[in-house]
Amino acid sequence: MSLLVVGSVALDSIKTPFGKREDVLGGSATYLALAASYFTPVNLVSVVGHDFPGSYLEFFRKRNINLEGLTISKNNRTFRWQGYYEDDLNEAHTIRTELNVFENFKPEIPKEYQSCDYLFLANVDPDIQSEVLHQVKGVKFVVCDTIGYWIDKKPESLKKVLAKVDAFMVNESELREFTHESNLLKGAKKVMELGPGIVVVKRGDSGATMFMTNSIFSLPAYPLEAVLDPTGAGDSFGGGFIGYICQEDSTEEKILRKAMVYGSAIASFSVGGFGTEGLKDLEFERIEKRHHEFEELTDF
Amino acid sequence: MSLLVVGSVALDSIKTPFGKREDVLGGSATYLALAASYFTPVNLVSVVGHDFPGSYLEFFRKRNINLEGLTISKNNRTFRWQGYYEDDLNEAHTIRTELNVFENFKPEIPKEYQSCDYLFLANVDPDIQSEVLHQVKGVKFVVCDTIGYWIDKKPESLKKVLAKVDAFMVNESELREFTHESNLLKGAKKVMELGPGIVVVKRGDSGATMFMTNSIFSLPAYPLEAVLDPTGAGDSFGGGFIGYICQEDSTEEKILRKAMVYGSAIASFSVGGFGTEGLKDLEFERIEKRHHEFEELTDF
Fold it and tell me: Would the ipTM clear 0.90, i.e. be above it?
């Protein structure tokens, strides 16, 4: 089965109460692809600038992430995000966003990626997401993510994307913002009216809830003492989710529920290190162990 | 098995985005006792004023709640709380608190209640909680709850109580306030150092987590579309929790986990009505059905 991930690859400068890092590997598609790569090979479509370190390209390749769809722009710099977290690690504060190569990015999906089985549209301009949907065909299952920035700037573009995807993945606060509805269940139903039959709400240290047409699945977060950097937690979650679905080649509810657990497991490792450190040398055994720990955590 | 509940009985005036009520039955021990009464007879110790409606006394009696320990003060008015909720139903805003009969309340535990098997010290002045602990003997399992007001005013008194109880039940934000620790797991560990082997953290619409010495249990909240009034949700949770434990006469971890589910089930009904309306004519079948719905909600 083949998985296509489209989204941003970035250089992040992050400060949390536990330290700081400059120009480390980041971006929605980065975390997505890294997390998914523990379950399945990943085809990545994104763009970086001339300043993007070769060591990061090497890192992707080692993790079985195909870079044929990664454009390296000679004339522009890599997308950059600078932000910080205070004691409440659930909330990221943005200091600066430089779109750079994403200002005029027109994705071109390589021919052999166009008939992918599974597609994750990671956070990026919804018009870019629409363009991707235009170029692919016969996809079995499409998941789309976004952030408050696009909900605010391009709600109509986002709605057009939602009409064409199977699942929408979104943060709790962003769902509230998008639907003007403080109740999550009501908010999820409003989104479903726009198209997707599945709405996955990411709730930080409160876990995640998946709303389906006739059923709801809810999972608490894994209780961690050492959260160093929450950057990319949601995208890591998305990567584990779609990675497991692709590995099993099924979107049965049973598989979707387990995918939520694998997503949460991967996210719990992601936040244990700065940037992508937590996703670097993960052994699959540890992911399986965490899956088992989720069973113990929730068993009654 | 016998259950003793000590705490406040109040008249609440509540406003939520969905309506308002004046001088309705409220108080920590009220919700606790009502919720627990679906599992076991309850002995209640509290105090009300001369203005307390007889119809509320009748309501307690009908629900199998023994009122021998309920003092009716001839010289003072019932404890009153007035508050409101905005769109974020997780946060109660207090307008006014009148301690009235609680200003000089010295609990006297009736002799036949003193050798109770299970004791729930619902939210009330920690010095009153200490006095209760002084009067009981041979209790198998004591749970204590509190609110931010006492954490702020009488932290040392609260610590003395915690040294003598088996379980501490507390809201997420209040645990943070009490322990000066934003991480819940670290906060729970700090509380355990003060005495209790069990810390139950109530997280509103994010569910509840129980920290034990060698294990953690976490349960999402039941997703509800119609939350009318969250007042008493935490105390209803506590009542279902201790009620089930008393019914089973066991504090084995397996029972404690199920007690969390029954607590959450009762709380989900409590918030569906104003004041105690949601706990009025509940049939046990509906509670069992909700327990089963929690299985479906969390199964993977």
Answer: yes
